[in-house]
Amino acid sequence: MASVRRCARCSNGCATRDVLKLLERSRVWRYSESVRSSKSIARSAPPLYEADYYAWVRDQVHALRAGRLSDLDGENVAEELEDLVKAVRRELQSRLELILSHLLKWAYQPDRRSSSWENTIDEQRRRVSDLIDKNTSLKSCLDEVADDAYRYARGSAGNDMGLGPRAWRRHFPSASPWSLSQILNTSFLPETRPN
């Protein structure tokens, strides 16, 4: 026999208990309970990866360190590692974009040059250097990332200079006028507009 349900209003039970006993015996009650039960299974808590990312990461780290590879959530771990690779590449591109947009402004607006621009260029070069030192395999994609960064740097510099897209597309070269070694050289600043 099913357990006796208690009234929601009191802990001792009451007349409601008797009604519940009758309902528990009925086919309708048993069917509705099984439907409710199956829905709760279907609505069970999401996997830890979705419910509590921080706890999931900690669990994965503990499993890795303990050598319990069978406890790993392999698909999601692989996805997260791929995202980390993309994030490092995005950081490199973002820093190169800042360098390039400031070099463009430096070259095309000599009357507006400032120590702030120079400091930004210098800081970003140092950060790129640190990033590459800590992730030496980035060297293999540096040219490609710099090309992508330049495409965005043109728009960024153009916006900062008050140019619309058509104007900055005409104004700036379509490919970087500077070599990668110039872009990263801490002593390089263009003195004139590129040809």
Provide a descriptive summary of the structure in words.
The chain is mainly α and 195 residues long. It folds into two domains: 10-44; 82-184, no CATH class. 67% of the residues lie in helices and 0% in strands. It has nine helices and no strands. Helix 5 packs antiparallel against helix 6, helix 5 (74-108) crosses helix 7 and helix 7 (142-160) packs across helix 8. The longest helix has 35 residues, at 74-108. It is elongated.
Condensed summary:
With 195 residues, this protein is an all-alpha fold. The chain has helices at residues 15-25, 27-42, 48-51, 53-65, 74-108, 115-134, 142-160, 165-171, 180-184. The chain has two domains: 10-44; 82-184, no CATH class.
- Beta-strand residue fraction: under 5%
The largest pleated sheet is described as: none
Number of domains: 2
- Please state the structural category: mainly alpha
Topology (SSEs and partners):
Layout: H1 15-25, H2 27-42, H3 48-51, H4 53-65, H5 74-108, H6 115-134, H7 142-160, H8 165-171, H9 180-184
Which labels suit this protein?
195 residues; mainly alpha; 2 domains; 9 helices; 67% helix; disordered N terminus
